[in-house]
Predict the structure.
Amino acid sequence: MSDKPPPQTPPRQIPTRDQSPDPVIFNPGSVDLYAKREKIQARSISGFFQNIRIITIWATLAVYLLLPWVTWDGRQALLFDLPERKFYIFWWTFLPQDFFFLSWLLILAAFSLFALTVFAGRVYCGYICPQTVWTKIFMIIEHYTEGERNARLRMDKAGLSLEKVLRRGMKHLLWLAVAFITAITFVGYFTPAKTLTHELLHFSLGFWEFFWIAFFTLATYMNAGWMREQVCLFMCPYGRFQSVMIDRDSLIISYDKARGDPRGSRRKETDYKAQGLGDCIDCTLCVQVCPTGIDIRDGLQYECIQCAACIDACDSIMDQMGYARGLVRYTTENILENGGKYKLLRLRLIGYAAVISIMASVFLVALALRVPLEVETIRDRNQLYRETSAGMIENSYLLKIMNKSQKAESYSLRLEAVPEISMRAPATLDIGPGEMITVPVTLSADPGYLKQSKYDITFAVQSRQDEGVHKSSESRFLAPTSR
Ligand code: SF4
Ligand code: SF4
C-alpha cells in the first residue's frame, strides 16, 4: 500500500476580495460620503435618432396640452372629477365602484412597459417619458438663451455681467412660463379646463386650484430645469429595475468594444489598423452629448436613458472619418458577443405578449358587459319598521340610482316577487347623463298577511329605452316578531 495521502479537493467557496479600508489611509473623520452633483452641460447633436426624438417629444407635448380641450358629448373628454368622484374617459364614465377597470388599465400599462423594455430596453425613457420630454424642452430653451455647450461652460465660469444676468433671467422666465402652462394643463385634467381658464383670467381661482397650480409649476421648474438627470438616477425606480427586465436579446445602446478598441486619436488618412488602433478616435463627443453624463464605452449603465444622442454623435464622427457607422448602436448583448441577428421570438417576449393579450381581452369583454347603471339601497337606520295609524307595517329606504351612460335615461322601479309587500315610489325615474338621484321608497304590508318577521327583498331598476340595461339591489323588510 502507498503511504501517499489522498489528493485534497480544493474547498468549495466563492472567491472574495477583502474590501476593508486600508488601515493606513482610512480616516473616518476625513471621508466625505456626499458627492456633489457635477452640472452637466450636454452638447446638442442632430441626427437620425434625434429627429425621431424631436417628433415623439413634440407629439407627447401636443397630446398633453391639447387633451383637456377635447370635448366629447358636450363635456371634457378626459376628466378626473375628484369632488364628484367621476372619471370621464371619452365615452366611458367610471365611478369609484368601477375601480377595477382603472386598476386593470394601470396593470395593463405596467405590463406593456415591461414588454417594451424586454423588446427595446429603456426606449420609453428616451423618447416619451415626461421627465425626458420636459427636460429636452428646457434644454432647447437653454440652448437658445445661453448658447451652445462651450458658451454655457464659459458663462458658468465667468463673473457677473449684464449679459449673463439678462440671458440667465430670460432662461428662467421662459422655464417658469413653460412650467406654469404645464401646471395649468395638469390641473385641467382634474378641474374642467374651460372653467379653470376662465377663473384664472378673472383672478377667481379657488384655494386648492391655486395651490396645485403653484405646486406643479414649482415641481416642473425644479425637475426639468434643475434636477434633470438626478430624477432618473435617484428618484425613478424604473431605471433600477431595468437590469432584471431586459435579457441578453433586448435592444440596448452599446459601444462595439471589439471594433472600437484600442482607442486613440489619429490623422484621418493614417493606416490606424497598422498602428494597432480600433475605430474609436477617442474624441469623447459621445460623452459630451450625453444628458446623464456617462461614457457609453464603459458598458451598459443604469444611468443610460437610451436617448441615442451618443449614436448620432458617433455616427457623425464615423462619417467624418470615412468609417462605417454603428460603432455605437442599438444592438443586443448576444449579437455583440456572438454575432447573428436580432431575435424577436423569445420566450419572455412571447409570454408578455400572451399575458397582455389576455388582460386586454378581459378588460374589453368586462367593459362591453358593463351595465351603465348603478343602484344602491340604504335602509332607514333610525327605525327597523313603523306601524301606521291604519295598522300597516312600513319600512323606509333611500335608493341611489346612477345613470353611467352618456345620454339621459328613463327608468322604471319595481319590487321583485314578494306579493305581501307593496311599494310606494315614483313610477318613472328620469336621470340625466352621468347623474345620480336619490329616491325615497316606502314598502308597506298588512301584518295579517305577513308570515315571517324578515323578508329578503330586491329592488329592480329597468331602463325604458334599452331592455338590456337593468340592475337590482337587495335589502330587507322587517316586521314585528310576534306573529
Ligand atoms: S449613454 Fe447614450 S443613450 Fe445613454 S443616456 Fe447617454 S447619450 Fe443617451
Ligand atoms: S464618439 Fe465614437 S469615436 Fe468619439 S469617443 Fe465616442 S465612441 Fe469613440
In short: The longest strand covers residues 393-403. The pocket of iron/sulfur cluster (ligand 1) is lined by residues 253, 289-292, 294, 296, 304-310 (CB under 6 Å). The CA atoms of residues 236 and 322 lie 40 Å apart. Residues 7-17 have pLDDT under 50 and may be disordered.
